[in-house]
Amino acid sequence: MTTILVTGGTGVLGRRLTERLRADGHEVRVLSRHAQPYAVDLVAGGSGLDSALAGVDTVVHCASSPRGGDEKAAANLIAAARRAGVGHLVYISIVGVDRVPFGYYRSKLAVERLIEESGLAWTTLRATQFHDLLVTLFEGLSKSPVVPVPAGVSDQPIAVTEVADRLAELAASAPAGRVPDMGGPEILSLRALARTYLTATGRRRALLTVPLFGKAYAGFRAGGHLTPERPVGKVTFAEHVAERFGGGRRTG
Length: 252
Fold this sequence. Notes:
Layout: E1 3-7, H1 12-23, E2 27-31, H2 47-53, E3 58-61, H3 70-84, E4 88-94, H4 103-116, E5 122-127, H5 131-141, E6 146-150, E7 154-155, H6 160-171, E8 177-178, E9 188-189, H7 190-201, E10 206-210, H8 215-221, H9 237-245
Parallel strand pairs: 1-2, 1-3, 3-4, 4-5, 5-8, 6-10
Antiparallel strand pairs: 7-9
Helix pairs in contact: 1-6, 3-4, 7-9
C-alpha cells in the first residue's frame, strides 16, 4: 500500500482525487490549512509540514491560490519533501502557463520550474480549465441583467473527475516528468459556453461581447490556453451543466 499526501485535498480537485486514491486502496493524507490532523499553511511552512510528510511515498500537489503565495508554498513543500525522503512529487498545472502572460499562470510556471530543479523525482500534468470554474464565473456574471463576455476568447473545459482519475494513475506510477496535456472534448467560444450555462439554469440574460486589452488577453484570444491536439476529456460542458442544474428548472 502506498502512502500518498494530497495538498489542497479539500478543494474541488483534491476531494475527487482523494476519493479515487482511497478507492484504489492507497493510504491518503489530506493536507490543507484546516483539515485535521494535517492542518498546515504551506506558505508559512512550520513543523506540521514535516509531521505530515513523515513516511509518505508520494505527494500530489494540488494546493494553489490565484491570490498569490504558490511559489513560497512550493518551496516549503519541496524542502520538507527532501527532508522526508519523498520518492515522487506530482504537480497539477494549467495548459498555457508558458504561453499566456497572465499573473497566475506565471506563478504556476514558476512552480513547475521549482519542481523540475528540486532534485526530487517528479511528474507534471497540465490540464485545461475545469467545468466548475466556468460555472463559478458565469454565476457571478449573471447576477446582473447583462452578462459581459470577453470578445474572441474560447475555452476547452474538462471534467474535474477526469483530471482526478489521471492524477491518481500518475501518483501510482513511476515519475514521468512532463506528461501529455489534458484538454476537454470541445473548444467553444465563451459566448457559446455562457449561453449553455444560462439555458441550463433557466436564466434569461442578454449577452454583451466586450473587447479587452493587454498581453494576457491577447494570449487568451490567440488560444494559448488551449490544447486542440489533446481533446482527451469525454464530458462536455453542456452535459456537465445539464446534470448539475437539471435542465433549466432554475430561474432568476
